[in-house]
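Task: complex structure prediction.
Instruction: return structure tokens for all chains below.
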Amino acid sequence: MSSPAETDRVVTYVDALLEGMAQEMRLDDDVFVFGLDVDDHKGIQGSTLGLVDEFGADRVFTTPLSEDAMTGVAIGAAIAGMRPVHVHIRMDFLMLCMNQLVNMASKSHYMYDGQVTVPMVVRAMIGKSWGQGAQHSQGLHSLLMHIPGLKVVAPSNAYDAKGCLTTAIRDNNPVIFVEHRLLYYTDAYVPEESYTVPFGRARTVREGGDITIVGVSNMLVECLRAQELLSEEGISAEVIDPVSLVPLDIETITASAARTGRLLVVDNAWTNCGASAEIVAGVMERTDRPIMARRMGYAPTTCPTTPVLEDEFYPNPVTIAEKAHAMVRPHAADWRPDPERAKLAYQAQFRGPF
Amino acid sequence: MSSPAETDRVVTYVDALLEGMAQEMRLDDDVFVFGLDVDDHKGIQGSTLGLVDEFGADRVFTTPLSEDAMTGVAIGAAIAGMRPVHVHIRMDFLMLCMNQLVNMASKSHYMYDGQVTVPMVVRAMIGKSWGQGAQHSQGLHSLLMHIPGLKVVAPSNAYDAKGCLTTAIRDNNPVIFVEHRLLYYTDAYVPEESYTVPFGRARTVREGGDITIVGVSNMLVECLRAQELLSEEGISAEVIDPVSLVPLDIETITASAARTGRLLVVDNAWTNCGASAEIVAGVMERTDRPIMARRMGYAPTTCPTTPVLEDEFYPNPVTIAEKAHAMVRPHAADWRPDPERAKLAYQAQFRGPF
Amino acid sequence: MNGPSSIDVTVRLYRSLRLIRRVEEVVAEIYPSDKIKSPVHLSIGQEAVAVGVCDTLRADDVVSGTYRSHAAYIAKGGDLKAMFAELYGKATGCAGGKAGSMHLIDMGHNILGSSAVVGTTVPIALGYAYAIRRRGEDRVVVAYFGDGATEEGVFHESLNFAALKQLPVLFVCENNQFAIHQPLEKRWATDRLCERVETYGISAKKFADSNVESIRTHTQGAIAEMRAGGGPAFMECVTYRWREHVGPGEDYDAGYRDRTEYEAWSDKDEVARLGAALGENRRADIDAEIEQQIAEAVEFAESSPFPAIEELHTHVFAG
Amino acid sequence: MNGPSSIDVTVRLYRSLRLIRRVEEVVAEIYPSDKIKSPVHLSIGQEAVAVGVCDTLRADDVVSGTYRSHAAYIAKGGDLKAMFAELYGKATGCAGGKAGSMHLIDMGHNILGSSAVVGTTVPIALGYAYAIRRRGEDRVVVAYFGDGATEEGVFHESLNFAALKQLPVLFVCENNQFAIHQPLEKRWATDRLCERVETYGISAKKFADSNVESIRTHTQGAIAEMRAGGGPAFMECVTYRWREHVGPGEDYDAGYRDRTEYEAWSDKDEVARLGAALGENRRADIDAEIEQQIAEAVEFAESSPFPAIEELHTHVFAG
Ligand SMILES: Cc1ncc(C[n+]2csc(CCOP(=O)(O)OP(=O)(O)O)c2C)c(N)n1
Ligand SMILES: Cc1ncc(C[n+]2csc(CCOP(=O)(O)OP(=O)(O)O)c2C)c(N)n1
Ligand SMILES: [Mg+2]
Ligand SMILES: [Mg+2]
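Output:
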């Protein structure tokens, strides 16, 4: 994955998260990390591994299985001036935190007219593959995007993972930090020193003139592969990574879509009232040029466990390329890239159980 | 409010709800209603009043303040073949139910491959006015719309309130039943006998050629007033009530928008990833005609308590008419109807405290 | 805290009890004028729970409460003018008019923002207490909540966590025996709440009649232990709400409770009892001061401006 | 239930214990082949809790469990072929391949669907029990959950509601002393769980070592009372998970627990103990039957087809 860093140090997403976390903890004694299993020998797939040894059990601790109260604890600590990072190994568990996130975290700064700030980060991992199934695979970021006062960020690569985590921790608002588990072992150039990635600035990862493809979180990776396959067919796709979903750089996306006349938004989530709906609607409101717009995301079903159905549940480079092709060349014969050529390294690598 | 009933019996929204509920309880012994305060002397603003006398405390009961577990109880009873109606006097409290609704209710039929069904209704009232403020006024229906397996319905008038409640109770799926508190004392022609209103069929409430206005829940009422004001200016607005949000009759909306070339969606909710985003995106995906699309909803802020700010927080007939006018006549001078003429009976009537 | 002489304590307790009582009576009087456009949940009858506990607190101690928090706000020393202005929805309110009665806050007096969603503030109090402990301070946090809140799962999660981490939190259950119109019998399987709390290793004490001095004395001991590094403690204070659940009126005709209950409680009214103990003159002086203070606060609220429309968009995000 | 002769009971208990043990060992053997593409949480070592309770149940009684539910599923008589096929993701699975190991279900045998989100199934069991009570039936519902689930607020809400409504629910806490890799000390303020449960008016009993006969005998009494109209009851069964939290392996080298713990538990292994009590011949016959049954189930799973692609879209909504 390309990234704008001036370094030749290649680091995985998971190590980038860990490094960013450790650096902020060294810089600011008020930063702490907690949540189920952050201090065990697996350390949230490695992303918190060793932190307890360096920073001690006061700053790195597991909790009882009490997501609702623990979210309140994060809010209270944040109000007291600390900077908690609350970790969830599956985003699905955020459903237990909704009352605190929606009714308290998002609203406190406003409702109390600025008397308090709530600088907290909620790390939430999206699962996939190996039969994670209905309740361990959901990307539910749009639920949080709906609520004013919450920021939502979904880094697609190691560089952004570290930089966004740093930005998130320093931000004075609750930030929902969306991670996709399949990205954990992807790598990128990542500077060793601390740096921030600004929220609200989309990144144009590939330039192109025929169609604008927006990929959210891991779908960016899938879109990039689709872009390669499309380019072999002579179709030039512009690929955009929104990086942060709230604030959202809708202007960059709109400008691109207005130029290409076609917009395909691919999210690792359902499309109904999803981030993809927001991006399409946001673009449509901002331009009077006719734009052909489509969304891709999860099938409108619960996620099944068996691989034969699970494969159909998600967009992938083949279906993305196929859809983009049909948008650009509506009158051409159907085209579908060879599935073998569309396999992503990160998918092949992944192996259960976990 | 016009409605297609052949009756001259005028009934309020709240009485329609009560009547629909009682009729279903008489018809089917498996129907029961529970939730905080359904059996007290206020009876959820009257919508459950007297039910406990007719049907007894086994079928009409209050609960401890335990929304999470009570949602599970509804699911379990539904799986056992009953038809629970779980009532929440504020939709904001659904945030405590999200784990059960998102991870269990929506998924059980699918995840267990049809071995169980979950015929339950969750009645959730949206509050407004009199300083309901940040945590007692939210319309959070889009959060539920995002999740496959949940139906979401938002009747805008007494006729639909009764008919949709009947449909919801008889439906074999979890149905989120969105009520707006300000609608409770609006009335409509409502047949005495039991009847159903089908889900997934939008109603074109006013026909017009210049612009398509979609109003969700109580916003339909506000849109109708805007339509009247617009028509005095010679602008003919088609006003559509989606009635149910999942399933959504996007075809009717798309056909109208394609005809008028303009689409304004007004929701009693935030727009970001909201029902309004979904409707705009859904229309855009279905037509290649250029359509000017806009959304209106809550200001992108937490709801403030003081009336001077609260008034600005919501769309109203003035702002809706103004926006529609600007869409239809982009080059005309700004126009804004007299606010006095835009007051709605239902708003004037309403008086705190509660 | 060195013990002040007993009469000073009584004066202080009475002043606080009486101030709360009168503030809320004045709110109730103003309410029908529609100047206060926000649901109000009055604590009239319950003042002793706020006062008995808060009297023992230092200024840098923290309290956290519910939508029924006028009493705790005042007892902890919250700004009265800012409170009235907030009820009026004015720019000078403690939250610029954005909060209303249900979300009072005064961080200058270490009063955490209250919430209209039952139970939500309890774990937030824990988080604040975690920060206190982490920083090695000897401050404490008092978390007020109603009997209804104890039915929410988050309450139990909070008890367990507070005990596990030995956080300096004093849990105070204001058990007014009703959640809206529902009596305990329809919500609690048993009334063995204190016993349950003790199974977490948290010392728990029940006060059958909210005597302000018993509450105060017990709190002093509990908080002293906490400052010395002890863990959380719990108090269940049985009390009675004299007015309707929300709004200014009485509702003994509604059928869910009986006026004789009220009469029994009003016979042991702490405001009256302490007032009588002070003697007529001293009491009258205090009362006059209180009326003056309230009149000034009301006048402040009346004469303050509403917030500018632009305020709608401020403080959505912190910079 | 008339008491069958003691040897019959032992045979039945052994058969069930052994079947569960062997099924899971076979799952563990198959797992590295990647034929089972779904996280599996094995109950090896914990079988007695499933068997001791379920042995007392009627066919029309109901059980509800967690993602670690192979044991309860089998003990309650769930279809073994359908279970293996489900693990294989096949169309013939108990949920057509959509569920996998974490969401087993067999409504034909009154096994409610299990869930991968800790604690979620507990209130659902209550809802089922409410329906039973409403219909005047004398069936009961057994709700299994782990020690970790007791930390979730919903568990407490459920205890209170079950006791308040006197629902026919037997709560069974499978306390294997860990949640993933976290020991009780890092999660529970105290271990006074049963005492806490009793404050709801629910009778509670702790079993220190998951002896299958003690569990069975106690359950019989508890359920008889429930059928007669009694309210809920609670059991905490201390036990030990021999394998890793998820997956087929052991993990004593991971550092979070010690192999000596395992050894102490395996010394009192109920499968071995009951097997020995039966005598060699009888045991061998049963074992052979079990191997046969498992082999058939595996063969069924292997030879079954995957679901058709169209199945992705079925059962999103019920007709
Ligand atoms: C989570 C939640 N559920 C329901 C409500 C509606 N509600 C408002 S006040 C109240 C009663 C709370 O009773 P209690 O905790 O005893 O406090 P009290 O009002 O008696 O002071 C209820 C149920 C709410 N605000 N929040
Ligand atoms: C609500 C929720 N939080 C966290 C998890 C992650 N998780 C999966 S299993 C588990 C441990 C549960 O422990 P326990 O209830 O004791 O059951 P056991 O695995 O020991 O049988 C956790 C924390 C989850 N699945 N659900
Ligand atoms: Mg109360
Ligand atoms: Mg366990």
